[in-house]
Amino acid sequence: MSGWMGKIVAIDLGSRERRTVAVSEETRRRFLGGRGLGVRLYNDPCPDPIDPFDPDNALIFMTGPLTGTTMTSGRYQVVSRSPLTGTICDSSSGGTFGAALKGAGVDGLIVRGRAERPVYLAVQDGEVEVRDAAALWGLDTQKTQKAVQAEISSKASVACIGPAGENRVLFAAVMNDKDRAAGRGGMGAVMGGKNLKAVAASGNRAVAIADPAGYKDLTARLDRIVDKNPVTGKSLQVLGTSVLVNIINAHGMFPTENFRRGVFNDAEGTSGEKIAETLLERQSACYKCPIGCGRTTRTRTKRGEGPEYETAWAFGANLGISDLTAIAEANYACNELGLDTITMGGTLGCAMELRETGAWKENFRWGEAGRLLDWVTDTAYRRGVGADLALGSKRLAVKHGRPELAMQVKGMEIPAYDPRGAQGMALSYATSNRGGCHMRAYMIAPEILGHPVFLDRFSTAGKAELVALFQDVSAVVDSAVLCRFLQFAVGISTFAEILRTVTGLDWSEEELMRVGRRIYTLERLFNIRAGFGRADDALPPRFLNEELQTGSSRRRRVGLEPMLDDYYAVRGWDRNGVPRPQTLAELGL
Amino acid sequence: MIDLDRETLVKMIDHTELSAHSGEKKIANLCDEARSFGFYAVCVNGAHTAYAAGRLAGSGVLVCAVAGFPLGAGTSSAKAFEAAEAVRNGASEIDMVINVGALRDKKFDFVRDDIRAVAEASGPALVKVILETGYLTDEEIVGGCKLSVEGGAQFVKTSTGFGAFGAFPEHVRLMRQTVGPAIGVKAAGGIKNFKEAWRLILAGASRLGLSASVGIVEGLSLYKFAPAAWLEEEIPCHICPSRFANLDKQPKAVYAYYKKKCLACPHLEKYNKYYE
To answer: Which residues, 6+ apart, have CB-to-CB distance to A298 below 8 Å?
Structure first.
């Protein structure tokens, strides 16, 4: 079976029972792998939404048909119901873990139950072994990975949680390959709730390629295209994702002090250019990736990965902090403790505004870089103010009586693009299946960067159709599984070609787009069962009622409702955002 | 609706790499991409002509070489020699740069002779004349087109990509109106996505000089799944050369010409709010 190893293992940590899950070729054609297949398989054991910390909640580690090939993919997806949002959630991570899982002979793991004592899973030669992790409990992610490698193999790739996951912080990340994060949505907390400290994979099994000659040609062509593309071949390589800091700031939509302003006067000091001048030690890359957007950096006392754009913003402009060293070290701490940097920064921004309005009396002040590390650490251990911060911004703001000060959608913190500066991005945030996320439909590409078409960022016309298209393409890429940055260089026709050479199965562009739409709609169906609807496809009132006062997005606010109507119509959903029977029939759902 | 299929689009593309810093690896990549996508031609500097022709032998993809590039201010004999050598090295098309200074000085005979010298030296190769529209008024663009045809060129082309600005639909439309249907119009310079390419085709371009060729072809694939985004009503100022007039890059008389046009434009009042 080209592209897949042919084995998905379901394991119950309570009973230690394990079995192989059969997945038909038809199902693989319809959902590909990764995110799509993960969500599809999640619905089998969990057809009705249950508490994310219920032992019966499934936690799925899933690769795709392209994982482990040289098509820039060592990636994997973690799928479960999010404790932060209550939505279905998938979180993606790079590095090598996905490739290692397939190298160990397994396409995916479905984990249910709760172990009585801490355990970790060792995947080798197609077998999954449950091992005692009592000695690992309490270790940070770096030490955990080293300790597991010492037990299994120095070449093992390890996905694990740190103290934040153990303490079920609602935005705990799963960390692998030292500093790569499946960050969003609290998948680390679900892992901690199962007493599952880590999953280790090692092995040398190769992914079978259906058309080796075609694959070789295509790989060479893709390398050329990636190299020639100004984003993948230049900006991301030289400056990393933080190349966006100055660009977004110049567009007046760089969220500053919890989205109260769109221009940060000290943005230059936290930019990719400044990182390259000061902290950068070398660029780093995921498995077989020719781009290498990662930044290995060093401060006077510490060394680590990042900050990437979202983190440079979350701990920078969003908190009024321009101390790049403090930002980098907070990033390192999040990696070690296993925390999502976007939600951490978003929650701190909310805390600072709560303090300023007098709603919370704790001593959070804009620009206070010196206490950043303490706040991050306290959050991971849920101690002091960290006990409240560990809830995320939505629950924090509700608790202190000012829900409107949480910059979130469906409970997930909005990242580093003020939606008042890009109407399509606003719609993308509002309709994201997992909450305030920029990755579901990265409308910054057409609205700011002019790719694949330049759109008037302040107009609402035509945005619904493109948001839906981007969401569907992203679902395909997350399910294939490929790095999303490839979307800057190639499009759906190339993705179909890559899948054909690897799997031997033909997908037309139309069929592949239908796969993406099917996945997005299946996620929507879960969310509807979980109680989400039109009222949740919303933005914080700040974006609808308050205009930015400075910068090139000034005097703008979001016109969400008309776009939402358009969007539902494009999707074939009714006015409440529920997919119509005809839509479900067309998608075979 | 956009009535254009992938096959037609790729056959309109001169896949281009003209940077001063491009080495052989980049030219190899350019040729290999052109071969795999079936582009009409690759457009390269003279020093890369022989290599590109060798790499593309038998592929059906032509080689286009530039002459007098990017300033057009060399002597006619130097340009002619450059063109002839490129043809000997395998070029099927020559993109020459007009003598912009002479055109602006109204030395029309000199300009016509300059073009004719290159056309004659190019023998069977097709000759395109780059006007560098960012340095010219509308009247000068019309004059440049007429002189190009009189000098024996088969194509007129908007820009080098190194001048004040790239291709605008308004200029392409003017060039097409001037040369008629029998002469080609090539739009080049700063064309980054499929929508920009489509606008120029609609304006009358029969050939596109592109560095972003792959992304533009992929853009056509995406268009069919979300046509509204590509057909969204244009803000005229976003695609108007007057809005991009730049005193640092243009002769002051040309800058003033475009600014004057902008101030007299009926769109100004409606759309100026976008630039407050």
So the answer is: A279, A281, A304
User: How do the pLDDT tens digits run along chain A, 589 residues long?
Assistant: 799 999 999 999 999 999 999 999 999 999 999 999 999 999 988 888 999 999 999 999 999 999 999 887 899 999 999 999 999 999 999 999 999 999 999 999 999 999 999 999 999 999 999 999 999 999 999 999 999 999 999 999 999 999 999 999 999 999 999 999 999 999 999 999 999 999 999 999 999 999 999 999 999 989 888 988 889 999 999 999 999 999 999 999 999 999 999 999 999 999 999 999 999 999 999 999 989 999 999 999 999 999 999 999 999 999 999 999 999 999 999 999 999 999 999 999 999 999 999 999 999 999 999 999 999 999 999 999 999 999 999 999 999 999 999 999 999 999 999 999 999 999 999 999 999 999 999 999 999 998 888 888 999 988 999 999 999 999 999 999 999 999 898 989 999 999 999 999 999 999 999 999 999 999 999 999 999 999 999 999 999 999 999 999 999 999 999 999 999 999 999 999 999 999 999 999 9
Catalytic residue chosen out of the listed positions B14, B79, B114, B157: B157
Query: How far, in Å, are A237, A329, A356, A577, B127 from residue A438 at the CA level?
Result: 21, 24, 28, 20, 48
Collect all residues with Cβ–Cβ distance below 8 Å to A380 and sequence separation of at least 6. Answer: A162, A163, A164, A167, A169, A172, A337, A338, A339, A386, A390
Contacts of B33 in chain A (CB under 8 A): 221, 224-225, 228
Of chain A residues 210-249, which have a CB less than 8 A from chain B?
217, 220-221, 224-225, 227-229
Domain with A550 in it: 419-587
Q: Do A224 and B225 touch (CB under 8 A)?
A: no
- The verdict on residue A473 lying in a domain is yes
Domain B6-232 has CATH 3.20.20.60: no
Tokens of A443: 């409308």
Residue A159 pairs in a beta bridge with A176, A199
- In this structure, the answer to whether residues A184 and A280 fall within a common structural domain is no
B194, B226, B235 member nearest A465 (Cβ): B226
How far apart are the C-alpha atoms of A468 and B45, rounded to whole Å?
A: 42
Report the Cα A577 to chain-centroid distance in Å: 24
> CB–CB of B90/B68 below 8 Å?
no
Residue A316 in domain: yes
| Rounded distance between C-alpha atoms, residue A310 and residue A316, angstroms | 9
Helices (H), A400-440: 423-431
Read off the CATH number of the domain in which A318 is found.
1.10.569.10
B105 is annotated as an active-site residue: no
Best residue in A227, A453, A497 to probe B by mutation, most B CBs within 10 Å?
Answer: A453
Structure pTM? Answer: 0.92
CA A255 to each of CA A265, A502, A588, B21: distance values in angstroms, whole numbers, following the listed order: 11, 42, 41, 38
Q: What share of chain A is helix, strand, coil (3-state, %, to 5)?
A: 45, 15, 40
Tokens linked to A542: 């700040």
Residues A402 and A277 in one domain: yes
Domain boundary among A145, A180, A202: A202
Residue A2 lies in a domain: no
Indicate if B95 belongs to the active site. Answer: yes
Q: Which of B14, B95, B128, B195 is catalytic?
A: B95
Beta-carbon separation of B193 and A450 below 8 A: yes
How many CA atoms are closer than 13 Å to the CA of A396, on its beta-carbon side? 34
Q: Searching chain A, which residue's CA lies closest to the CA of residue B225?
A: A469
Residue B26: its chain A contacts at CB < 8 A?
228
Of B222, B229, B232, the CB nearest to A491: B222
